[in-house]
Amino acid sequence: MRKLNITQYMVKIFQPDGTSKEIPYNTKDSIIQLMFHPELRLGGLDLLKQNKVAEKILKAGIDVLLEEDEYGQVKRAVESFKGFTQNEVELVKRVLECPEVKVKEK
Questions:
Q1: Does residue 106 belong to any structural domain of this protein?
Q2: What is the number of structural domains in the chain?
Q3: Where are the beta strands (DSSP E) in 17-59?
């Protein structure tokens, strides 16, 4: 299993007057949008599989535990997207460096 941190983090946004301010970056929504990006060219079955993982992410709190195939879906979405900005460095690191965790059955 993989443990993906989906908490918000702060990013710097530059204002038209030349100043900057920090705002929270919505990690959950960004990952989900990447999972449904048109570049993935999802067919019907793949769309439903992506949606199942997206719903799991939406319901999660600080972290989400993903099975290896679920993690693969998220990872593929991030790897296939072109056009990231510096604000997404943390998001990409969290996905691509997502730690593997051992889970015990009860």
A1: no
A2: 1
A3: 20-25
